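User: Show me an example of a complex going from sequences to structure tokens.

Assistant: Sure. Here are the input components:
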Amino acid sequence: MNDQQLTRTALLWQLLSVVIVTLPHISHLPYWITLVVILCIVWRLMVYLGRWSLPPKWLKTCLVLAAGVGVLASYKEGGGISVTVALLVVGFGLKVIELYHRRDSLIVLYVAYLVASTIFLFSQSVGTAIYVILAIIIVTSALMSTNLSRETGFIYPLKRSVLMLIPAFPLMVVLFIGMPRLGPLWEVGLDKSAAKTGLADTMTPGDITRLTRSAEVAFRVRFDGDVPDQTQLYWRSIVLSDFDGRGWLKDEEKVPKLPRNRDIKETGTFQYEVILESNQRNYIPVLDYLSAWPSELNAYADMTLASKTKIVNREQYKISSRLDRGFGLDKTADDFAKELHIPLGNNEAKRLASSWWQESATPQAFIDKMKQYYHQNFNYSLTPPPLGDDSISEFLFETKTGFCGHFASASAFLLRSVGIPARVVTGYQGGEWNPYENYFLVRQYDAHAWIEAWFPEQGWVRMDPTAWVAPDRVEKPADDVLSKDNAFLQDNLLSAWSISNNQILMQIRHRIEALNYGWHRWVLNYHHQQKGLLEHLLGALSPLKLALFLLVPFSLVISLTLLLLNYKKKRSANPSDNMINALSAYFAREDMARRTGETVTHYCDRLAQYKPEYAESFIRVSTLYEDIEYGQVCDAHRLTQLKQEIGYCLDVNKNLLVRLQWFLT
Amino acid sequence: MRDKLKQLIDSVGEILYGKEEQIKQAVTCLISGGHLLIEDQPGMGKTSLAHALAQVMSLDFQRLQFTSDMLPADIIGVSIFNGNSGEFVYHKGPVFTQLLLADEINRTTPKTQSALLEAMEEGQVSVEGETYSLPTPFFVIATQNPISQYGTFPLPESQLDRFLMRIQLGYPSEKAERELLVGGDARKKIPSLTPCLTPAELLELRDLCSEVNVSGSVLDYIQRLIRFTRDATHFEFGVSPRGSLALLNTAKTWAFLHGRDYVVPEDVQAMLQPVFAHRLRGVKESGEYAGEGYIKKILTQVDVLA
């Protein structure tokens, strides 16, 4: 069987499945591997068309060796599992030129399943999942076509495999819901340090601009209960208190940890769940100001939250915050040596600050002056001119054009110059509300920088200098405001359309986003919900319940499928035949089934002898059947009569199950 | 008509005790218009049966003893030079009759056996470019000894396929044997049997039988049987379309003989052994035809219901 040559239809199916499972890998594999796979497929296709012949053995050996060396050379710096996948794909491609016997095709197809599943290592979106399911259907069709010994139409294997896979779907769902998790499969060491963007530990004024070019999702937030106002959505991520004259740095000394507050549902707080995309850093964006957080995270005195390790996978955390609470009240002005430090340089700026300070009676008046100054002379732009060494002075007196980073940096500097402790906070601001799934979507271009200043009795107070210049930036979603700027998302042509004001497009975008959100929450991060969902479904969990939850649907689906197959086989189009079959099935339990090849007349005679009390009925059954089937006097009346007679013989009214079976015929 | 048939069968039954089933089969074969092959050991009453059938059907009857040195000309006739007219004149052979009893047909060489091929299938004989029609009805009843016996030539498949039925007589039952012993040789009674059927009535009967109704489910059954012989691995080759027609026609006649105007699967099953057994050859045996066992296998593995 395995030595048989593949049929021509089967070969086409093999090639199709090879193409479909390698296609998604093209983007991350070295280009020469794609070329090798294409070459192999073309070669095999030419053999199929009778133009070329299969390659000789020495050539195949050379190709294998060359491919091995090629993979080693391409991944000299290492690449984790990518190397393995590359090796798998190239070997898989090379096997295609050997595709001749059924044996070869089995190897190719089993590997195809593996290659299809490795697609998930690189992407886990809804689209990928749909694609992989389609690929699995194609590969199964190829397997089907390999096992069909005769030539069939091209579509036939597809039909069969879809029919076969349909019963597998409910099982897939049950396994997904009930199977205990060992962490998702794709949490393997993929080398993706360069893949994602996020906030850096330092901030020079131009930094945020880099992020505004990215429409990548930073995180999603779902609120339990109340949702804060858009202007309150400051997602605090990193606090920068060291200023070196040009850029802002994170505090080098260790910020003390916050004592733990376990009461996540404290009154007056907002509870929310952050689903964070990988950012290759530790920070976790939280609303001002943190009140409770999961035990596996560290919270610091500057009200930031961080994970103990780099966030390399999508993570999900339940957090609560109090927006009305101030912090830092227990400090005195002496504690702020760092927050008051100003390096040398930027003398013009310092002079400006002191002149304002002399004119103002209170710190508030000073701030108002600052506000006014910005308001009159400044432009908000994503593409400000570059700044030199005295960045603050240059910004304040020369360029007067900048982005949130510039405003935050300058404002913090001015405050420090007059002895008000101040620091820069970076994070995200706002987010896009999705009405279908009720969550905020925060993208990288929502990245923002603002400042905090400390006043006695008030503690740390948040101020957003950008809002003084461009209030829209805070009140509306970032894309509404920024889209007027040419630099916004300039590297991302595809998302440009989605930013438009078109209502329908907006709606579609929200729908797609909602779908993605559901996908992340319920499929990719399902292990977070699993316990809750299972408890919701089954009550208190026990191993027995879990086993039953898995086993019952399995046995149900399998027995239903078997029953259906059997039913289809047994059931003929002929109603009288069906009745005789039912009769035979009933008496089968008494070892009086009709034998293969036994005529109905003979069978009824046998039954009449077996059950003499029904003899007359059996004889009538046989006569009626003969009339209907052979005498060609098939009328509805006789059929009803036959049904009645057989029903009588079966005692249908005595046994519910028999009645049910009888009803089904 | 049916009464006449019954009478006919009874008359033959007076000659051959306790073989009613075989007699019915033989009559079915002749009414269906086919040739009959009777195979059994010597002395089982093959010739008596053939003889008696010819007598009761009042057919022209020729008996031909096949021997190993026979030539085709001995069967189909020969052209002889007439000295007076200076021409060759064709002298008809024994084949020109309504019922030809080919006794011990497998004692002659295949060459001579083949002389009957055209006559049996086409009802005509071609000699030296001239074609001569045979009388209607034309039947061949051939008898043969089992092939395993000495001095026999197995009939070629082409020849076998032309026999509608092959029946075996078998030993008589205890009771029939006793009757035979007490009653003496029944063969003497053959000439005194009263003919029950004229040739014209025979043809009329044939028409009546062909009008017997066959329902779709019976046709399905017949097709399943035939497909089984072709697909199953037990046989070297399946049944030919001629064989399937033979099964259908004999089943019709059998149904008529049993007083029905429609065919039931039992009719088909009854005809399976005589019609199929000589057309099939099991894979393992060589020369032997499919025995009882193979037919039973067909019957028990092909279902009557769809």
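The lines above are the inputs; the final block is the predicted structure for all two components together. DSSP finds 26 helices and 18 strands in chain A.
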